[in-house]
Amino acid sequence: MVARPNIVKVRLSDEEQEQIDRMVKKSGVTTRADYMRRAALGDTTNAAVAEIIGEVGIALNRFGKAPEKQFERIVFLLERLVDIMQDKEGER
C-alpha cells in the first residue's frame, strides 16, 4: 500500500457529495477518496462514461412523457460522451 501522509480537505454541497457518491458506485472503486484521487489524477474516463450512459438511460425511460425535452437531453449527453471518448483517444 502506498503511504499517503498528506490530507486535503474539500467542502462539498449535499448535491455535489451525492453526485460524487453516485459516480463512486458506478466507477467500481471502493472509496470516495480513491475515486477523487483518480479523478484528480486523470483516471476517470470509465466513471464519466458510466455516468453519462446512466443519464441517457434515464432520459430514454422518460422519453414518452416529454419527447422533445428528453431528445435534447439525450443529444447533449451523447455529445459529452463523444467528447470524453475523443479526449481519451488523444491520450494514446
Count helical runs. 4
* Fraction of residues in β-strands: under 5%
β-strand number: 0
H-E string: HHHH
Q: What is the residue-averaged pLDDT?
A: 80
Q: Over all CA atoms, what is the radius of gyration?
A: 16 Å
Q: Which overall shape is indicated by the principal axes computed on the Cα atoms?
A: elongated
Question: What would you say this structure looks like, in words?
Answer:
The chain is an all-alpha fold and 92 residues long. It is 72% helix and 0% strand. It has helices at 14-27, 32-41, 45-61, 67-91. The longest helix is centred in the last third of the chain and has 25 residues, at 67-91. The mean pLDDT is 80.
Please supply descriptive tags for the structure shown above.
92 residues, mainly alpha
TL;DR?
This protein has helices at 14-27, 32-41, 45-61, 67-91.
Element layout with pairings:
Layout: H1 14-27, H2 32-41, H3 45-61, H4 67-91
